[in-house]
Amino acid sequence: MTETAFLTPKLHGGRFEKHAVPLEFLKDLNALQAMVFAVAKQKFRDSNPDRQRLVKGFSSGIELGLSSIETGSVKLVLNLLCAGATLFPSHPSLPFFEEAGEAIVEVIEAAENGQTAPDDFPSEALRIFDRLGKGLKDGETFQLSSPRTGRVGSLTRDVRRKILLSIPEVYDYEEETVLRGSVSGVNWDEQTIQLNMPDGQMFQFHYSGPEQTEFVNEIISAKSKLEQGKSIKLLLAGTGKFSRQGKLLNFISVEEISFLDPLDIDFRLDELRQLQNGWMDGEGGKLSESGLDWLKTCFDRYFNLGVPIPYIYPRVDGGLSIEWTFPHHEISMEVDLDNKTGYWVALHSKGGEAEDRELNLETEEGWKWIVEQVTTKGETTP
């Protein structure tokens, strides 16, 4: 068995900040191997135009192996493993596989720069991008670099879409997605649920199977709330099919169905994204998209299960007011989305004592202090 340095993937953002590789990511490595084999075969055909078939044993004994995960970051080391290479110093097909790895990096790099894949890159390999990177979330990057050329390609959700939509015969694509909406109606006969999205769009979800049946039972038990006009918020997570324009057409598979807290933070931030200039009697501007993204990341990172969820209101100055109401305390925090600072005020509802504090919300210490305060003051004791 011989090993040849091949590719060094590096994972950034989101789930990878914990410096661990989620087990579900192994599906992406399997897809990468399938792509490498498809491109290597095409490289051989291009170099041997007179041959109608691959040579016998072209890929026999070759596989992609995860050799190590380097410390300090989620950086993987992938080697080409060649078994039974005794008559030759290396497997005779090895150069084609090395070229394949470099070609994949170049395709990703080209898409980053708004360019299409080279004409000699096989279309069947491009289609494998339907599997490679499907589970990437916003803010995550699957970076591939070639140790031979030093070139780097960074695969994100957006780059992956560009590659798939560059294929002329591709009219839709699949990717893992999370949908949040308010239940506005249920059709028991057609087994559909109508959801209103924070952006005003409507989505009709068709349910079936044991998971969805359990979910419908919950909907039935909540029927009285629907009739009273109360909002029931729902989360759907799974693999969605999207049009070329990015519109969700339907769910291919659903992995999670759950009801959201009425104050669900992600849902509320999505609502606030829809505000336009002049939303408050001609005053108030559109909130910063990057600022809302940053705030969502902070809440995801620091507000674990059990931390009291706040009310969130927009401010005409472009910031937010984040508020908690407890039996003995009223808390408000004005958040500057541009400077990432907060002004905290906690008022004791009976004694009238007030405490205030300026916070740097770019630091872990600032957020840990907030969590400690709302958790402590949320207790029923004075």
Summary?
The protein is α+β, with helices and mostly antiparallel strands and about 375 residues long.
Topology of helices and strands:
Elements: E1 2-7, E2 10-12, H1 26-47, E3 62-70, E4 74-82, H2 94-112, H3 123-127, E5 141-145, E6 152-155, H4 157-165, E7 172-187, E8 192-196, E9 202-206, H5 209-221, H6 223-227, E10 233-243, E11 248-259, H7 265-272, H8 289-302, E12 311-314, E13 320-325, E14 329-336, E15 341-348, E16 354-360, H9 364-377
Give an overview in words:
This protein is of the alpha+beta class and 382 residues long. It has three domains: 2-169; 175-259, Beta Barrel (OB fold (Dihydrolipoamide Acetyltransferase, E2P)), CATH 2.40.50; 265-377. It has helices spanning 26-47, 94-112, 123-127, 157-165, 209-221, 223-227, 265-272, 289-302, 364-377, and strands at 2-7, 10-12, 62-70, 74-82, 141-145, 152-155, 172-187, 192-196, 202-206, 233-243, 248-259, 311-314, 320-325, 329-336, 341-348, 354-360. Strands 1, 2, 3, 4, 5 and 6 form a six-stranded antiparallel beta sheet that branches. It has a five-stranded antiparallel beta sheet with strand order 9-8-7-10-11. Strands 12-13-14-15-16 form a five-stranded antiparallel beta sheet. A hairpin with a 4-residue loop joins strand 7 (172-187) and strand 8. The longest helix has 22 residues, at 26-47. The chain is elongated.
